[in-house]
Design a protein that fits this description.
Length: 322
């Protein structure tokens, strides 16, 4: 993180040269990307709970709120907020089912990510495992330099997983039934393609458009090829989200992928500037969405408001048609 803060100073030193028109367009596409993704998740949830009304407004608030929290905290803790907010807005929902819907929501992303990684491997632009510890800014360097600590951490993680599995065996049947419920939308391939993949494919178009205009904003070569390289760096930096938003890791990967294509200072200004701008936009969208749907940021009031919304949706669904 110290290197990231240093690189942030480089960015602010180049702030006057930023094309704010292109930056504004990039952030608009970023907002659109997130909004269309909420449509996909809403449809996954509706398939899992066909007898319950699933309001898009509630899903929008939960998803954007989680994205905002993920932007400033490590380990994707914002996903817990997503589940918490949605849990109290869908009558009869359970956390295993809701967590499974988040997995379904990432399946298409995983497919696209694998395709991009294979493409990058074919081009020979990815760093090999031996060069990872030497890459600038990479957050994983400490782990490679302290293998004993890495082994102890892996052992503790293995023990925790084992304890969790033992605890789950007593409730395993009911647990897996609820998990399977979250994958309901996959049973109908046509429904999955039309109501989930279509929205997610559109979100990928907006994602690449965001990167393209970010490149223009920071006066780097704006091409589809370079936008894809930036996306690969972003994807790799989120594989092990040990810092908020992959800060540091993404910068190191971009310096490697764009080696010889641009000056180091310009790349640092771009990578840190894009990171700061997207984090700020995600946090602002998250706060706005939570306030819009719950009219509060206090945890207790969030819970009370969510339960009231769920009760209102349930009574509306049970009311006979006129």
């Amino acid at each position: 993180m110290d290197r990231f803060l240093h690189d942030a100073g480089v960015f602010f030193g180049h702030l006057a040269a930023v094309d704010f028109g292109a930056l504004g367009i990039a952030l608009a596409f970023q907002a659109l990307r997130l909004v269309v993704r909420t449509r996909a998740w809403r449809n996954i949830l509706a398939a899992a709970y066909p007898d319950t009304e699933v309001r898009w407004r509630s899903v929008l608030g939960a998803y954007l709120g989680g994205v905002g929290l993920n932007a400033i905290t490590p380990a994707r803790s914002g996903d817990i907020l997503k589940l918490f907010l949605v849990k109290h807005r869908i009558e009869g929902s359970t956390y295993p089912t809701l967590a499974a819907t988040l997995i379904v929501e990432t399946l298409f992303d995983a497919f696209v990510g694998i395709v991009l990684l294979l493409w990058a491997a074919y081009l020979g632009v990815l760093p090999n495992i031996h060069s990872v510890p030497d890459l600038p800014n990479i957050d994983l360097r400490w782990a490679f330099q302290h293998p004993v600590a890495l082994e102890i951490g892996a052992l503790i993680l293995g023990i925790a997983i084992g304890v969790l599995l033992v605890w789950a065996t007593a409730r395993v049947k009911r647990f897996w039934e609820r998990v399977r419920q979250g994958f309901t939308v996959l049973r109908d391939g046509d429904e999955y393609l039309r109501h989930v993949v279509s929205w997610q494919a559109l979100s990928w178009v907006f994602r690449l458009a965001t990167v393209y205009f970010m490149l223009r904003a920071f006066h780097l070569p704006a091409t589809i090829h370079n936008a894809l390289l930036v996306q690969i760096a972003q994807s790799l930096s989120t594989l092990l989200p040990i810092t908020p938003g992959g800060a540091g890791t993404e910068q190191g990967l971009l310096l490697y992928l764009f080696s010889g294509k641009a000056a180091r200072s310009a790349l640092l200004s771009f990578s840190v500037g894009m990171h700061i701008a997207i984090v700020a936009a995600n946090v602002a969208l998250g706060l706005f969405a939570i306030l819009l749907t719950t009219r509060t940021l206090k945890l207790r009031r969030l819970r009370e408001r969510a339960k009231a919304d769920a009760a209102e949706a349930s009574s509306a669904a049970e009311k006979p048609p006129p």
